[in-house]
Amino acid sequence: FGRQMPFNEKSDFQCDLRVSNYSHQSQSVLVSDKGRVLYCDAPVEATIGGGTIKFVSDRGKIILTENAGRTLAEAFRFASKTYFPPTGEEPELLYFSAPQYNTWIELTYHQNEKDILAYAQSMLDHGLPPGIFMIDDTWQLGYGTWEFDPRRFSDPKGMVEKLHKMGFKVLLWMCPFVSMDSPAYRLLEFGRSPDTYEPQPKGGFATVDATGRAATIEWWNGRSALLDLSHPNGRKWFAGQLDGLRRDYGIDAFKFDNSGLGDYIGVKPHDASLDAAGQNGLYAGLAQTYRGSECRSAFGLAGRPIVMRLHDKEHSWAALQRLVPDMIGGGSWTAFLPGAPFDPELFVRSAQVHALCPMMQISASPWRVLNVEEQAIFRQTVALRQKFVPRILELAQAAARDGEPIL
Questions:
Q1: pTM over 0.85
Q2: Separation between Cα atoms, residue 226 and residue 177, nearest integer Å
Q3: Nearest to 143 by CA among 90, 106, 112, 179
């Protein structure tokens, strides 16, 4: 909620982190330029109005520290050191040392081997350095069927090897949902092995009622079952999928997209002590288990060596003025379709905002959406960033030790 700050005695603000993390990562902490810190180790409902700040939590301990320091910076340092100290381990540094490349806007629901390789090669052909390379949704046969779609990928292992030879590290898009007409669903819900037909232990989905049937979760791609990573079956099955992709295809890591805290509201996990934030955290925390991964939505993971991206921003000057980058030009893929109201100057300015931020992610291809002059400016912007890479890396490594913000 940074763009609504600073709060003061005239502010009128409300959010409820108990039921939503607003498609982002969240933490129950408020720091003051008078050196105060208000903190809770659980999600809170926060209300500011009439000159009063109010935190309400269902289970957490709310702590007010009046003398954490004399400035906002000192208050933040106190909060970081006391409540979410850095682990000392930095994330994969390639995220910082080169642009990231994401195939979503160029290929959307049509991910395929030929166009992925062409997209990667186009970046190198225009003088950009290789970096983290994310293959987005629909590389797979289905949600929960984590196998390359053979209609689109004739040699996925060979594709990954080619990307590695180009210098990229390869991530695959991933979600915690399982289509309810898939072999994985039948295995976990009914205990029916798709290979041997032998009975298997049941369980592994978040459930909805006393019958123990899987909850049906509505998300942006339909309605699916939701993995319960507190259940041994769910945890073992999902780890097997991820480990198999790394072993069989040489995948480096994963883009753990969705699920938000709100997806876990009203469902029952195997571990009854977990609230929605705790369930969400088991999934998002895999980004630390599988080093080099990225995740988008979680509560309470500050201080850990995890790369977290923001929710998609629209292609607009208002979004750009928030100065907290998403993908260059915004992550709203419909803005880049033929006939959409696309603004090339906005795209270039977005790249310039990214240039000296900790990370820079490209999705829409500059070589498709910009003219020759604009492309030249874009390349100059990336070149400027690369000059500052040693300093950015130094700050990233320092943040892992002391919790200081990079920017």
A1: yes
A2: 5
A3: 179
